[in-house]
Specification:
Layout: E1 13-15, E2 29-31, H1 44-55, H2 63-76, H3 78-98, H4 109-129, H5 134-154, H6 157-160, H7 163-174, H8 180-194, H9 199-211
Parallel strand pairs: 1-2
Helix pairs in contact: 1-2, 1-8, 2-7, 3-4, 3-5
């Protein structure tokens, strides 16, 4: 028997390890090893075949062509990725500082909320003068940019860049009118047909299957 209201099965959540996801992972919460689950679709042989199918007769994308197309699309997502990363860090710190901390047993609610607001604004001002000052933000942005530029050179971009954004750019530029959703689905179908099982994805699913 199960407790009333309890789900009689083990439930897992698999999330993307991006900046918008919680940093604390629960017992049944796993994370993909790449920025988006779509990053696992960045296989040049598969991308080339799907683009060739979309282009029809006379379209001849090689794996090398597909590799360059993916890399160029990744380069084009660099600036938005840096903005997202720096903005997310500033947002997270600011939101945390703005949380009101009011005694739940307060008998002077208005006064205590007002004091909590003043304290929150003071924390934000402290952030702006310190961790989120112009100089610190510039340093952080430069560090993030340098890290991602290195990833473009060493191939790590396949893991750390936003795969969904990359695929959308490829579909838009080279998909011959193919929508992003259809492009993504055709990539999945080709991977299945070619028996491609990305190691990072397979290891997560194997872990789940071993416990069920």
């Amino acid at each position: 028997m199960t407790r009333e209201g309890a789900i009689p099965m083990k439930v897992y959540a698999i999330t993307d390890p991006d900046a918008d996801s919680p940093t604390t992972v629960g017992a049944n919460e796993l994370k993909w090893g790449r920025y988006h689950i779509e990053n696992y679709l960045l296989e040049p042989s598969v991308v080339a075949r799907v683009l060739n199918d979309a282009g029809g007769l006379g379209t001849k994308f090689s794996e090398t062509d597909a590799e360059e197309i993916m890399l160029q699309a990744a380069r084009e997502t660099l600036a938005p990725l840096v903005v997202h990363k720096v903005q997310s860090e500033a947002n997270n710190q600011t939101i945390n500082a703005l949380r009101l901390r009011v005694n739940q047993n307060s008998v002077n609610v208005a006064d205590d909320v007002a004091k909590a607001l003043d304290a929150a604004m003071s924390r934000v001002a402290h952030l702006r003068a310190g961790p989120l000052s112009d100089a610190r933000l510039r340093t952080y942005a430069d560090e993030i940019l340098s890290r991602y530029e290195d990833d473009l050179l060493n191939g790590e971009w396949r893991n750390t860049f936003r795969g969904r954004s990359i695929l959308k750019r490829i579909a838009g530029k080279h998909g011959n009118g193919l929508s992003y959703a259809l492009f993504r689905n055709q990539l999945l179908g080709r991977m299945r047909d070619q028996g491609i099982e990305p190691p990072g994805m397979k290891s997560v699913l194997t872990m789940i299957l071993a416990e069920t």
